[in-house]
Amino acid sequence: MRRKIAYPLATLGMVASSLAVASSPALAHGYVSSPPSRQAQCAAGAVANCGAIQFEPQSAEAPKGSKQCNGGVAAFPELNNDSLPWRATNVGKSATFNWVLTARHRTATWVYYVDGNPIATFDDKNAIPSATVSHTVDLSRFSGRKTVLAVWNIGDTPMAFYNCVDVNIGGSGGGSATPTAPPATAAPTTPPATTPTTAPTTAPTTAAPTATAAPTGTVPATGTAWAPGVAYKINDVVTYEGVSYKCRQAHQSIRSWEPGIWTLALWLPL
Amino acid sequence: MKRRVAAVLALAAAPLLLGACGTAVDKPAPPSNTATQADVKNVAEITAGSTFNDTDVMFLQMLIDNLEQGQEMARTAAKRATRPQVAELAKAVQVTQADEIKLMKSWLAEWDKPATLDERISLHADHGGMPSTGDKEIASLTTVKKAQFETAFLNLFLAHQHNAVEFAQLELDKGGNELARSFAERVKQSRTDQVQQMLKLLAG
Lengths: 270, 204
Prior knowledge:
Chain A is mainly beta. Chain A has 2 helices and 16 strands. Chain A has helices spanning 2-23, 38-43, and strands at residues 30-34, 61-63, 89-91, 94-101, 103-104, 107-114, 117-127, 133-138, 144-154, 159-169, 224-225, 231-232, 237-240, 243-247, 251-252, 267-269. In chain A, the strands form 4 sheets. In chain A, strands 2, 3, 6, 7, 9 and 10 form a 6-stranded mixed beta sheet that branches. Chain B is elongated. Chains A and B meet through helix 1, strand 1, strand 4, strand 5 and strand 15 of A and helix 1, helix 2, helix 3, helix 4 and helix 5 of B.
């Protein structure tokens, strides 16, 4: 009898928690990734001192009708700050804006503004956006550095998502501006301590991938200290916390991909 | 049957245990020395311990679903990407996430919980949003023209990894199991840094 009561209670617990899940990240929905919007440059680490937006570039959500880069969201004042070193992407007579959508909302319109005036509107007629969203916008009336305001107007809520995209119209043939130096990545944290005591079983099987050309920095064949932001190739040897490891899958290292028990697919202990 | 009852009771008791979290009910083992870590050959050997709440369970279930979709996207990218850096990132994501799936499934098995979500869509329906990457969006990666592939993949996978960060944040806010929480921190870091890489790849 007690069992029968316990089940519904547990089920209620799950429902409550799924509602909590639904409400918590509800504010995070989309941004322009390329040409990089200001929030994309923050999330990429290309511009420092961005505040909270760097962790959630998809969250510049505010009621419809704003002409500000942050849509009026007080938590993201950096987006409105024209004196931050925003990179202006060189574009030709037109530019194609690509969106990252972290949740697909029914969409009224996508509107692009320059100098406060709408220059292009794409009417989605309240449909769910397709797999990839990109819009080619005619910019031939303008030249030089401009800030394009790109707005995603949601169809079934009063809200919109705001992005400023800095472009240099007619600037040297549409190529990219000089890339900025890679940002310093924070030192990796030590992996959570666990001491499994069972005997090791067979190593995870990962097919040996073919080596591809390393795009950036090279690594000596004998162990240097592991670091984030390095392009490691297969058979590169690194040391981490006193242990040597051999790279088994070429990759650009990032935080939490340091050698250890969590990353045996990348690093073979020697 | 007995085991199942025990799991249900544990779940019902979870709020109480959560309240006692500060008293280190479920403290993981003290830091291991690296030699021991180097001996471990399979992440599935890592056990999570018996203290957990329903956020821990939901986090693992949602992330397994996210990662299984991610495996499909990364597999496609490893084949179709034009630039070696994109293919390489996809392969590295594939092998690391394969281990993460093993790890999470072994924890859910340890807790006697299913490894699958009942419904993916219902989690988001309440606030009007569809998930960023449904079956249709993932399938589109196999049909999009080669010239548009990288842009399509990177934008979809950016959203996908942002979603994983959102799940991890939920676990960090409300999860009860210490190991699941430290795993969530790793997920948050690795995806945040993958986002950086992908945005740079998109910007050319």
